[in-house]
Design goal:
about 280 residues, alpha+beta, Immunoglobulin-like, 1 helix
């Protein structure tokens, strides 16, 4: 009996040792597995973060004034708010006060028009226009396209000389500026240096009239290539003649004489004369 009990005790001790070794090995393997899991988890998180950064850099576009979306406090799509251009719907469109065709002989016609910008705190540059010329019976004889600047609160003359019309006589003209054409930008005051006009006088003869005026530069900056347009009005305020010329330079605080001439008589009696210097807007860029 003693020997049997001894063998049983040894067997129990061996089984206990095996169980202890198995538990220890299980603990070691469990910790290794957990460590591998955490390492893989960290690597996966870092990889996901890198992929997210790459995706954001590739596909995300910061709001801008050219993205075609109303965002970042814009009043409309890509206009108003932080954008340089104002929303067209919030500004008054240009007003064409009149357009007139003035026969110039030899199948040529001068065109004169006045365009008003009623916005006292907004301007536009290089505004496209479309000019259509009509003959008898409102037959379209031709059309012209061009651009003009619209300073804040200003009325700008548009003078186009010597438009060829061939054997047809231009009886009327129509100037169109689409309401959506101007890219308005904020300009609370007119930055241009515009010469003042004085001493306007009509001279010459009935068949070869001439008009002189004095342009004064009010600034300490030399003015160069100043374009001036003259409008001669007759009965009813209708323009009976127009012309344009360029003054090469006007010294700081200086004066220059501007001269307009015609090779034929006016179509009516001149009752008023208006000389308008044209100075383009400075670049908005």
């Amino acid at each position: 009996m003693g020997r049997v009990a001894s063998r049983q005790n040894r067997t129990l001790e061996q089984n206990a040792a095996l169980r202890a070794a198995f538990c220890y090995t299980g603990l070691i393997m469990s910790w290794a597995a957990r460590r591998r899991f955490f390492i893989l988890l960290i690597v996966g998180a870092v990889g996901a973060a890198i992929l997210a950064i790459i995706a954001i850099a590739t596909f995300y576009k910061a709001p801008s004034c050219t993205d075609g979306i109303q965002n970042q406090g814009e009043t409309g799509i890509d206009c108003g708010g932080p954008c340089p251009y104002l929303c067209t719907a919030q500004e008054q469109p240009p007003t064409v006060l009149f357009t007139q065709a003035l026969p110039n002989g030899a199948g040529r016609t001068d065109i004169i028009a006045l365009v008003e910008n009623k916005n006292a705190d907004a301007a536009a540059q290089n505004v496209p226009y479309h000019l259509m010329l009509y003959g008898a019976g409102q037959v379209l004889l031709g059309d012209l396209q061009g651009t003009l600047d619209l300073p804040p609160g200003a009325t700008i003359p548009l003078y186009i000389p010597n438009v060829a019309s061939g054997k047809q006589t231009v009886t009327s003209a129509f100037l169109n500026i689409a309401a959506s054409a101007p890219n308005w930008f904020r300009m609370t005051s007119d930055p241009r240096i515009v010469p003042t006009v004085s001493n306007t006088a009509l001279g010459g003869s009935a068949t070869a009239p001439r008009i002189e005026a004095t342009l004064t530069n009010p600034s300490v900056t030399m003015l160069t290539n100043v374009r001036a347009v003259v409008l001669v009005r007759g009965a009813g305020g209708n323009v009976i003649a127009a012309s344009a010329t360029i003054v090469p330079s006007i010294a700081p605080q200086g004066q220059a004489t501007v001269l307009f001439t015609w090779n034929g008589a006016f179509s009516g009696v001149p009752l008023s004369i208006e000389v308008i210097p044209i100075v383009p807007l400075p670049s908005s860029s």
